[in-house]
Inverse folding.
């Protein structure tokens, strides 16, 4: 069972992830959290020591949530194209829910701020691009995708699409965001499955 | 000839666009600009009245720059696919130069801040998506792109790709950013040019 301290810490970090996604990581402060959650500022200081550490702990918590909500369920899908689809679909749900995507907001916020927070964030995104590329590589091995597919290129294009979805969803408030993104994914996967023209050329 | 007031205003806004792109629109303040440019704070107040107005004037100036550097030269390319390519290529240069893209930074910053600044920004992005979609529609009319192409879908995908490029360039510092983006564009255009499988099906 969680101790009282762990429970409090959980409540704080859940709220911090929500605030971070909707208002930005810079909006996180020990004072703000203390006020929102009616906790003592000194108690929060004991938990997190500094704003920077609070931001890093919040990124770690968001990463745990992402693993639980996106990666783990998608890994239950069959290896190959089904798993690539499941990763993307879960991610789309994550990115277009209320508040938007914690990570896509944070990377824009910290892209010009070198330091430990940016380093932790950069690692999460590199890990995620690796996860997408690995799923694509497996799909090549399984024969779902063409042999000459560059898995990192596909990962980059999936990532770009999600940024576009996030933009439409949050900025333009386009109700089409998910449909457009899914249509774009279909085109990407169609191209990944086969290069019929290329295959034809090679045969002749 | 520009008056002294106009010249000063130009110098201020050029610097404001640069700061906005690299540090964010929120970093713009009359005090900061006065310090950087060794001008009097009261003089800057006379020019811009408020921080919000300064931000809006800065967006307008960035839009003028974008028209001069991206749109006008690209419109000299032939109607059809060449013009779509020219728009994208000029835009890629704009987005991956020192400081990054003023607009892609600003929309991330203001996506959760309703108000006049966000409204002006939203209009710039809606106009730009329209410009891209119009170029794609012309390419359909010219016979370069397939008849059943959705020009707004292509515009969305070009936009997403640029967000991905901007992310790789600014956050991951990936020297591959431009190559990956160009490779993705090639596939996008290949898909726009023809739907051979679909054409085959329709013929039978």
């Amino acid at each position: 069972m969680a101790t009282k301290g762990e429970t409090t810490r959980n409540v704080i970090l859940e709220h911090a992830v929500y605030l971070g996604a909707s208002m930005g990581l810079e909006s996180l402060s020990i004072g703000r959290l203390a006020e929102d959650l009616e906790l003592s500022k000194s108690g929060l200081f004991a938990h997190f020591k500094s704003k920077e550490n609070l931001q890093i702990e919040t990124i770690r918590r968001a990463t745990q949530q992402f693993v639980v909500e996106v990666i783990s369920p998608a890994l239950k899908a069959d290896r190959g194209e089904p798993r690539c689809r499941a990763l993307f679909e879960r991610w789309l749900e994550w990115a277009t829910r209320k508040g938007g995507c914690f990570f896509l907001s944070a990377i824009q916020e910290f892209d010009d701020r070198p330091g430990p927070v940016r380093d932790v964030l950069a690692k999460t995104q590199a890990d995620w691009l690796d996860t997408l590329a690995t799923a694509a590589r497996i799909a090549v091995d399984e024969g779902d995708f063409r042999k000459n597919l560059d898995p990192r290129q596909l990962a980059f294009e999936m990532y770009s699409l999600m940024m576009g979805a996030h933009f439409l969803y949050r900025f333009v408030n386009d109700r089409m965001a998910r449909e457009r993104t899914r249509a774009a994914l279909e085109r990407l996967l169609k191209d990944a499955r086969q290069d019929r023209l290329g295959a034809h050329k090679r045969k002749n």
